[in-house]
Every structure is written in C-alpha cells, then in structure tokens.
Amino acid sequence: MLAYIIRRTLAALVLLLVVSAVTFGIFFLLPRLAGETTDQLAAQYIGKNPTPDAIIAVKRNLGFDQPLYIQYGRFLKTLVAGANYKFGPDPVTCHVPCFGYSFKNHLEVWPEIRSRIPVTFSLAIGAAVLWLLSGVATGVISALRPKSFFDRGAMGVALAGVSLPIFFTGALLLELFSYQWPILNNVQYVNFTDDPLMWARNLILPWISLAFLYSALYARLTRAGMMETMSEDYIRTARAKGMTERAVVVKHGLRSALTPILTIFGMDLGLLLGGAVITEQVFSFQGIGFFAVSAISDNDLPKILGVTLVAAFFIVICNLLVDLLYAAVDPRVRLS
Amino acid sequence: MRRSRTLALAAVAATTVLVVSGCNSSTKSAGGNGSGGSSASGVDAATKGIVNASDKKGGTVTYEMKGTPDSFDPGNTYYVYMYNFSRLYGRPLMTFAPGSGQAGNKLVPDLASAPGQVSADGLTWTYHLRAGLKYEDGTPVTSKDVKYAVERSNFAPDVNSNGPTYFNELLVDNATPYQGPYKDKTGGLDSIQTPDDLTVSFHLKHPFADFDYMVSSPQTVPVPQAKDTGATYVNHVMSTGSYMFQSYQDGKGATLVPNPNWDPSTDPIRKQLADKIVVKLNIDQATVDNDLLAGNAQVDLGGGGVDPQTQAKLLLDPKLKAQTDNQYGGRLVYLALNTKVAPLDNVDCRKAVEYAVDKVSVQTAEGGPIRGEIANTVLPPDIPGQQAFNLYPSTNNGGDVAQAKAELAKCNQPNGFKTTILARSERDTEVAAATSIQAALKKVGIELDIQQYPQGKYFSDYAGVPKFDNSNNVGLIMMQWGADWPTGYGFLQQIVDGRAIKDSGNSNLAQLNDPAINSLIDDAATNTDPAAREKDYQQIDKQTMADAAYVPLTDYKVFLYRSSSATNLQSSAAWSGEYDYLNIGTNK
User: pTM of the entire structure?
Assistant: First the structure.
C-alpha cells in the first residue's frame, strides 16, 4: 500500500511539472512562434498605455530576452523562491509561492487566488456533499425499484437536471427566492468565520444550483452501476447465504458500484475547486472561477497563468486522493 | 476623452420595440423630507431636481458595479465614474457642484479657496488652498502635495499609466526633461511652484482658458510624497474627502467610513451622510439591477445604465418607469470621414455621405431614442453653448438620396465609389450601426466594406492611423467621443484640431486640418471671455460640418434606475448623466 501511495504521489508531481511546462509554453512560447516580438509580449503584461520604459522594465523583470529554457527555469524558481520587481519608489516583492505578479494591477497573484479559495471551496465542497448524497441515494433507490413511479419520476428530474444549464437554474433560483419571494434576500458570500449561519444561508441557492446538475448525473450513473451489480452472481450468492437485503445492497452492491462514481467525483470536485466559473458568475461570488474570468477579460496574463496552475494543481491533487481512496475501496488496485 | 462604460450596453439594440416609446417627462415636486428643500419625483426627475432630498444621517450606502475600475487611485484613473466617486475621498483643486442636468456643470473651488488667478499673459495660474485642510491621519495638506500629485500622475507613465497627461503636455518642462518623481532627483518640475504651503502656481507653455476645468481632474487630489508607494498607493489612498478607506481589495470591493479629520467648515459641497459606503465590484449587471430594484444597493457605480432586460422591465411598468432617468451622456456617436483618402478628399463626396446616411436606422441599431437622440451637430446638447443647426437636412432624418446623388455628381463620382468602414468588433451596436450605414449608402452607389478590429488596438493600429487608413482605402470610421470637461474646448480640440493629428493613437480620425478651425481653437484657448469662447465653439462646429468631416449620428443617452432607498439623487451633465455621488445617503 505504501509503495502504491509513493508511486502515485511521484506520478502526480511529475504531472504537475508537465502541466507547468505546458502552461508556460502556451503563454511564453506560442506567442513567439506566432510572430510576436518580445516588446509586444511585454506590452501585454502592462496596463493601458504601455510606454517604452514600462516595456523595458517588464522585459527585464521577466527575462524575455533570455533563452526559453532559462525563462522556464526562472519561472520555476520564482514559484519556490519568489522575486523582486522594481516599480515606483520602492521595489515590490512577489513572495513564495510566487504564482506571478500582475503588472497591470501591481499585485501578487497568489494572495489574490488564496483569498478566493475559501469561496470556491465552500461552494464546491458543500455542493459536492449535497449532490453525492442525493445523487447516490436516488440512484440506489431507483435501481432497487426499476420502472417504479419513483424511478421514473427521479430519472425524469435527473434528465432535467442534466439538461438545464447552471446559468439558467441559478438565475431562476435567484429570481424566485431572492427577488420575487425574498426568503433568501441579498445573497452574497460571507466568511464562515465571520458568521457561520449567514455563510450557510447565502450558500444554499448556489449549492442547490450546482447539486441539481451534478446529482442528476450521479443518480443516473449510480442507478446504472447498481442495476448491473445487483444482477451479478455474487449478489445472488450473498442473498442465498441469508444476508439481510440491506447488507447485500450496501456491502456488496453499493461498494462495487461506487468505484467508478468515486473516479468521476474526483474529477468533478477537482474541476470545481479550480473554479465554479458559471455559478460564481451568476451569484457574483468572488471565487477562483470569477478571478479566472476577470483575468481573461482583462487580458492579464500573469493572473491567467497563475490561476491555470492552481486549477491544475487542484485537479491533480483530487485525482491523487481518489486514486488512494480507490485502492482502499478496491484491493485489486494496489496490485496493478 | 474620459472613458465611459459602454460595453455593458452593447446588446441594447434588441429592445428597440420597447424603447421606441421613450420616456415622457412628468417631473413633479413634492415636499422635502429633512433637507428643507424640495424633492423631485417621476420620470427624469433627477435630471431636473433632487430626488429623495434628505439630510438624514446613518445607514450603509452600497455601490455595485459590473467589472472593475482602472484604479481607485485618483492619480491613476480615467473613467468618468471614478472621477465622480473619487471625490468622496479626495478633493481636487476645483470640482463640479452637485446639480441636476446642466446645473451639474457648475465648476466650484474645492481644495482651492477660489478659482485660479490667471496672469496677464495667460501663462500662469495660481491657486490658494483653503486653510485647515487635513488628511485622514490629521497631518496638514500642503500645496507641495498638490504639486507632487500632478507630477506622479502625469510624468510617471510606467507607474501610473491610466490617466490622461494634459499637465505633461501643457506645463513648461525643465531645462533637462523632467523624468517624473520616481526617477528625478533634482527636486521636481520647476513649472509648478509652491511659494508657501497654501499656494500653488502652474506655468504653462501657452495660454489655456479652460485650466480651471483641467484642475478639476482627480490628478490634483493631494498626495503626500512620504505616503506614496507608487503603483501600490491604491491600497491605501490618503483621504482628504468626507470618507476614507477602511478596506480595499482589488477586484472585489472597498469599504469607506467617515473621515474624522474632514472638516465641514472647509467644505461647502460635501455632507457625509452615510455611516458606511460599501463598494462591491465584479457583480453581474442583472444582479446590480435587481439589487437596485430590491433596495439591496443604492447606486450602480459604473453609471452606464441598466441592462436591456431590465430596461424592458422598467419601461413596461409605469411605477418602475417613474423611477428612471434618461439623460444625455456628454458623448457623440459619429462617423468620421477621412479627408485624406480619395474620393473623400473631395468635400462634395463627403457631403454625399452626409446626405445619404439614414440616421433613424442608425439610432435604431444603437438602441432607439432612449439610448440616443439623433444628432446633427458635432457638439452634444449638454455642452454649454451648443447651438442646434442642420446643414444636411432630410425628411425625418432618414437620408436624402436625391441630394446625395447630386453631391456625388459634383465630385465626379455619379455612380458612387467603394471604400472601407471601420468598427470595433466587441461593440455590437457599433457594428450594427455600420451595417445600417452600409445599407443606406448602397442606395446612392457607395459600396462599403465593413472591417472590424478589436478595441484594444483600434486607435493604436487602425482607426485614425494615417499610414494605415490612407493606404487601405479607409474612408469611414465609427467612433464615440466624450468630453474630458464640459466645454467646447474639452470636447472639440482633440477631434478637430489639425495639429492634434498623430501617427498613432490619433483622435482626429478625419485627419481634418482646416486653418480656419485651428485658428478658432487657438482663440478659444486664450480668450478670457466665456461668451466669446462659446461663439468660437459654435463657429468651429459649423465649419466642421461645412467641411463634412464628421457625420453626427446620435447624442448618447444613459438610462438609469433610481433606487428608492437612495437619497439626494441628481443626474448630472458633468458626470455623463451619472448621479452625482458626493452626497448620496440612504433612508434604509
């Protein structure tokens, strides 16, 4: 088991390195291949009115005149060692971990992302719990009572959930419960540490919006997995041994059906932690997804680069955790 | 040109049917509720009076905004709403007194005790600061801080790059060119003198009659050099206004609280009503509108007006419609005709375009009358002294095909010609307007090829770049223009002065270089008689139209919703129709 954990962790680290190289290539190599000069590239890192002085400063700060491999080395070094930039009367420092420095806003990227992590985590983890519980429970009940009224109703709702985009369900919930009937008026993110009740109250609508989409998918997946599992020979054997139906379903049926669900859950949660872009936009929550959209619309390359790396990090970490959980659920995994 | 938030309004065209109804004026006066003055209500009430006039103190005023401003640093912004908002925490030498409609254009001393005193040769402007002014930390404000503020905002473009550089262009430079406060170690710009702590003098290269307007820019809000951290000064701007920053987070928002060292006896225009001002940034426009309707927010900071869906909702409900203001935004939507590319280098060919354009279809494409009135002059009606005239009349402004063909015959192009029209690709309404112009001109044989370019490079690489336009047969250019300050000079100089033509980043898109106009511009810059200056502007306007260098299309209008929980709302011409933010309180 330990060897498996070490193997998977090393693989994840290598993957992170590859992601950083690819991301770096997209931002620094592709524009050059497309014919952009170092001046033009530097100008994109500055606010409006890129003056020659500012272009020279950015070129110097980012080392654009140096060979690409040195730039990449420098890029990795700033991640773990930080960097100093000269602007105005005092030099500015990009502290470790330096995920970049926005020359447009004169701000370090990592503190900006870090301050948004609680928003996205609150949104994603709360919604994940909701969709996992409701989706799996619905899927199991539907699988155990196929073609029943509940099954047909639940699958109909699931179909609607999968079909309706979040920008519709989110806006609809907001319009109904925040403005038409102001049960949850003035929805805005409140820190858990400031007011746990308001934190939960203001997250109810975003959680429901997200969970509605995902639980529908999970219900359908669980139903399909459970139906297949429940028709296996070992289920019949378990029943023949005199086990209770609950034990058969939970211990043998659900455990087996959960393995693929867990894999997808890891991917979905990782993606959401990297930014629940649309939900954050609809509810005006300043999470990582919102930050990414703002960075793109401002064409602020250091911010885009930083948020891409952080999002990739979350996805890789979630997949690593799922791999480890996978091994706990299914002993065969450790052997491979 | 002060920037206004226009992108959010890009999809307005779809609501044409609804907006054609427009807004009827039905302002009425009601009793005041605490201020002792009268309070206005009804459609467009805030353009004519104070809505919810009140001196009630307390509560939280919430500003919400789609997107983010360029900066909260008064010396590093060029958005009109930030010019407006920054006065809550920064006092420029001069500013506009809160007023409704045209009354908002009244320039009054703010940090200064009186308007500038100009020397006999018109080259030196002197201001005396009010006595007893303090920063939020209780330290005194001095004239050196005003000098430093102008230096950092105008001479350090690699640090503070957002704002205009009028002072840089107008002030006499040092013998060795001044490098800005972050690089220069010689003691600053010699042409700004501070003989004592309360006096500041500006020495100009040439006389400039609108200098009082120029110092109304937030670039004259004092900055103590010891507190300036360059580009990161925005994280804690030292307040001289009625409010100061309690917190600020880039891209998220800010909280302002009353400044304990602001002395109302030094400030005849601010009131300090709310206990707290909360600014929320990056809020979806639909949410901003809904929050205004629900009373969760009092002001849309961007001030560009509601989104199309909300606009439709407001116009369909008489009660909601009564809480709207439809005001001129100090901007002209126009078509520039390149005077340097054939056959438009012939004035008669340009006149043919003037006659052929169907302005009603352009207005419809722009969003209907509620988003702009049809324009026939270069100066918008909310610029003082503007005079209405129309040199190229047509029935119902729908274009005059016969007259256009006659003009084409005069310029030896009886069958028309082919040329290119430029528009910004992100601006749907601009592209839609260009398409309607294309259709109208086709009727007289003028074939237009519409080319769209991103707005980020529109002026630097394409529109108004003489080398590009003249060699790529660019005859027509779509454009919007707003004044930096509400005078004819502030509006006209950059777009009609032949000496303002630049190789790139040019605003004189028509490349108009008429000696008669240039001479009038010079007279207006130096003439000390306001009435004579306005006469100059009227003549410039007429001459520009006689030159047929620009086709005025619409005078831009904003459509705002007034939150019923906000007090002291006045839609001011000085702020492009936005509410004056200085004294907005709340009755919640």
Answer: 0.83
